[in-house]
Amino acid sequence: MQKTVAKTLPGFMELLPGEQILFNQMREKIQKTYERFGFLPIDTPVIESTDVLLAKAGGETEKQLYTFTKGDSNLTLRFDLTVPLAKYVAIHSNELSFPFRRYQIGKVYRGEKAQRGRFREFYQCDIDVIGDGELNIINDAEIPSIMYTTIKELGLDNFTIRINNRKILNGIFEEIDAKESSVDIMRVIDKIDKIGEDNVKLELKNLQISDENIGKIIEFIRINGTTDEKLNALDCLNISNQIYKEGVQELKEVIKYIRAFNVPEDYFTVDVSIARGLDYYTGTVYETFLNDHKEIGSICSGGRYNNLSEYYTDKKLPGVGMSIGLTRLFFILNEINLIKSNQKSISKVLIISMIPDLKPAIETANTLRNAGINTEIYFDDKKIKAKFKYADKLKIPYTIVIGEDEVKTGELTIKNMETGEQERCVVGAVVEKLKNNE
Amino acid sequence: MQKTVAKTLPGFMELLPGEQILFNQMREKIQKTYERFGFLPIDTPVIESTDVLLAKAGGETEKQLYTFTKGDSNLTLRFDLTVPLAKYVAIHSNELSFPFRRYQIGKVYRGEKAQRGRFREFYQCDIDVIGDGELNIINDAEIPSIMYTTIKELGLDNFTIRINNRKILNGIFEEIDAKESSVDIMRVIDKIDKIGEDNVKLELKNLQISDENIGKIIEFIRINGTTDEKLNALDCLNISNQIYKEGVQELKEVIKYIRAFNVPEDYFTVDVSIARGLDYYTGTVYETFLNDHKEIGSICSGGRYNNLSEYYTDKKLPGVGMSIGLTRLFFILNEINLIKSNQKSISKVLIISMIPDLKPAIETANTLRNAGINTEIYFDDKKIKAKFKYADKLKIPYTIVIGEDEVKTGELTIKNMETGEQERCVVGAVVEKLKNNE
Questions:
Q1: Would you list the DSSP string of B188-248?
Q2: Which of A163, A308, A416, B358 fits a 20 to 30 Å CA distance from B13?
Q3: What is the per-residue pLDDT across A31-66, written as a single tens digit (0 to 9) for each?
Q4: Residue environment code for A150-182, b if the CB has 16+ CB neighbours within 10 A, otherwise e
Q5: Distance of residue A249 Cα from the nearest chain B Cα, in angstroms
Q6: Distance CA A288, CA A254 (A)
């Protein structure tokens, strides 16, 4: 028969089972943490009507879309979980309770240029709180506490959540009369870590900003010190603009409550240079960096927006949220050896029969499984060595051997595959041993 | 601003949070059960190269594909999880341990005619065991025990797993010299429950089967009685064909071991009329029906196949597996009220502050969350009645009220929202109460 070449598309992650176990454990930790903060699950379709998904036409994103027709319908694969949320809330607003706290973990699609570490299909893990008309600023402080808890749960340490408020930036641009170019200026400021202060000045000059105003901007983004020193410096800057003052006030509130949420001082900071590329956020913004691996960019970002569903409804629905791009995060942590897959098996124990009649092995498996222990039986008629090799290769923690002697005495031989220790005991004792050893 | 109409595509399930919680609970129960039997997770892409997915061109399925181009690539959304598994095993066979036991739970896509209860995007929950060269028949008996355990875990009872072996049918067709029309004959037999014996006879006559041979077929599919009586009748039929005998022998082995796996006699039966529409299965086949709702069709099906990856590799990889179509199952069980969503909230407790300073509320939440209790704080500055209404609407089981008095005494007021019971205690006692009450 003519064979087809089996291949997986470039830019699509497909893991071996051992790595998949690790990936799933990370995904479950994120989910459990989101649930601990009382967020509700939703699961929207991967395919949406193109006009719904592109209600807000999206610059860069639009080129990357997976768009196609089926019958008369123009369809697109979702490129994030925020637009589907906006649609969902617009459709169901009468059936939801506000503030609506939801999480969604699912795959999204962007036809980026394929390159190592960039994925066309990837998991986003999002939470958002949506208010009906208004939303208390304390929500903006709870989000970083969820970021902190989640990243800690993933086993990471030595990271910093950088926090800013877009109103501070917007106010400054109003103050220096550069409101029309604010998006451009923010894009430039956003790059300061990458391109340095001199290049920022140069690019600002290219934007027709006067030297005096460039000076003000630089004075502003040079603000430094402890969190409280920065907040103080923001207060003392000679800027009278009202939006600016509002932004500083909000930022102070957020910092006050982040502390109430017990996020340690070492794990967050005010960073006035953070703008988030998108022109979507309107208040608080967050980015999170691994201090020893800043080169990989923000691993967890988000912010406050005025009006989630404005392209679908007149209802005012302000929100604040965050997102973790799990596929890329997993890939990078794996690359830099910050996570490791030790577990290659789901089974806690492999039952190996030395006798042709497999009924005693099956009965033992029934008992263990009924007790909630992940159990596998080796069925194939292979040499005993091959059976143990299977357990070894899959790193199954325990084996139980059943031979004639075991059937006669009703005792099983259980072996710890790591230490090589063996003991004989009745099935009840085996259950206890394996349950206590989770 | 011009608004876009927010809508979800027909044939795509999108649930409110309460139903989503129930759906996710079912999905997790399935996953946990699959893991209890030692199956490994994999997660293949939703998008595959069209030539890979259509290596085996697929009749009906092909019309339903979501196919499109992106750049030079011809892409298709997966329509099941079996073809991606075949691809996966062909690619990774050198890195996997055989027998390879894998589960996959994910969305698949079929552009069916939209109608109530039919979905274009739906979850399949699959397990398969793949052997390298050969695979012990006992695996064919373990699968129904997983079916039984899983369906029980979903809270369903009164169901029957119907079991047959394709070799029995194939042998009979060889015996009556109607091998070329065997697929057609099986399709006719498969419909006996729907169209009745007379119509089966008529359709067989249309296939040019002689009256004598139609008699043999009917005698065969009339086989009835207990499981052992049926097995006995199969033995006694005057058929000397070797494949037939092999099939009967395999079926007997499977039944013997299903009993060893403790599947109660009431929950499985031999059904010689079951062929499974596909010409894909080569040995044991299964279908599962809810006895009181046979009209909804099989809720869990599967079978044995000779050669999983034959379109990609020369390696012989026999397998046996099963699949649950969760989206449709959820929809139907919901319709006929066999499942009910009682839980509308992920939070175990809502903390309500009677004082403007939310710090005591936040501190309490920190303690509860650190203890693993799903906790939410009501932040919005609303009247106390509105705060309780929110807890009511979301059916959050407990509320904790914090007022001046509570701050002074260090005791919290915790209220059981269902019974209305209230008590005052310190936060440690609250943690104990909520932890014991899972």
A1: HHHTHHHHHHHHHHHHHHHTT--HHHHHHHHHHHT--SSHHHHHHHHHHSS---HHHHHHH
A2: A308
A3: 999 999 999 999 999 999 999 999 876 666 677 899
A4: bbeebebeebbbbbbbbbbbbbbbbbbebeeeb
A5: 17
A6: 16
User: Which DSSP string corresponds to B349-362?
Assistant: EEEEESSS--HHHH
Residue A99: cis peptide before it, omega within 30 degrees of 0: yes
What local confidence, expressed as pLDDT, does residue B113 receive? Answer: 83
pLDDT along chain B (438 residues), means of 10: 91 96 97 98 98 79 87 94 97 96 97 86 98 96 98 96 94 88 82 88 92 89 93 92 96 98 97 77 95 91 94 96 97 90 91 95 97 96 93 96 93 95 94 85
What CA–CA distance (Å, rounded) separates B101 from B39? 5
Instruction: Please tell me the class of the A349-435 domain.
Output: alpha beta
Contacts of A121 in chain B (CB under 8 A): 45-47
CATH fourth-level superfamily of A159-291? Bira Bifunctional Protein; Domain 2 (3.30.930.10)
> Which of the given ranges, A168-182, A381-395, B137-151, B332-346, has the highest pLDDT on average?
B137-151
Query: In the CATH hierarchy, which top-level class contains the domain B6-157+292-344?
Result: alpha beta
Question: Residue A430 has which token pair?
Answer: 């085996």
CB-CB contact of B352 with B403 (8 Å): no
Q: What is the pLDDT of residue A71?
A: 86
∠ Cα A44 A45 A51 (to 5°): 105
The SS3 assignment for B16 reads coil
Please name every residue paired with B377 in a beta bridge, in sequence order, or none if there are none: B351
End-to-end CA distance of chain A: 48
A313 touches B: beta carbon within 8 Å:
yes
| More confident: B39 or A216 | B39
**Please, which residues bridge with residue A207 across strands?**
none
CA neighbor of A46 nearest in space, from B11, B52, B28: B11
B431 vs A216, more confident: B431
- Domains A9-158+292-344 and A159-291 equal at CATH topology level: yes
Neighbours of A275 (CB within 10 A): 26
Residues of B in contact with A52 (CB under 8 A): 4-7
- pLDDT higher than threshold 90 for residue A177: no
What is the ipTM score, two decimals? 0.94
Nearby residues of B273 by Cβ (< 8 Å), 6 or more positions away: B164, B189, B190, B192, B193, B221
Share of chain A above pLDDT 70, in %: 98
In the predicted structure, residue A18 carries a pLDDT above the cut 80: yes
pLDDT band at A102 (very low <50, low <70, confident <90, very high): very high
**Residue A149 in contact with partner chain B when CB distance is under 8 A:** yes
Instruction: Give the Å distances, CA to CA, from A46 to A75, A90, A323, B230.
Output: 10, 18, 17, 47
- B186 in Cβ contact with B167 (< 8 Å): no
User: Stretch A235-240: mean pLDDT, rounded?
Assistant: 90
Contact (CB, 8 A) for A261 and A141: yes
Answer whether A374 sits within 8 Å of B20, measured CB to CB: no
Model confidence, pTM: 0.94
Query: What does the domain layout of chain A look like in residue ranges?
Result: 9-158+292-344, 159-291, 349-435
| Interchain CB contact of A393 with B (< 8 Å) | yes
Q: Strand pairing of B301-305 and B319-325? A: antiparallel
- Residue among B43, B90, B346 whose CB faces A20 most closely: B43
For domain A9-158+292-344, the CATH architecture is 2-Layer Sandwich (3.30)
B438, HSE (Cβ side, Cα atoms, 13 Å): 8
Out of B17, B138, B373, whose CB is closest to A42?
Answer: B17
With contact defined as beta carbons under 8 Å apart, do A412 and A427 qualify? yes
Query: CA–CA separation, B318 vs B139, rounded Å?
Result: 11
User: Hey, how many other C-beta atoms are within 10 angstroms of the C-beta on A292?
Assistant: 11
Give mean pLDDT, residues A70-94: 95
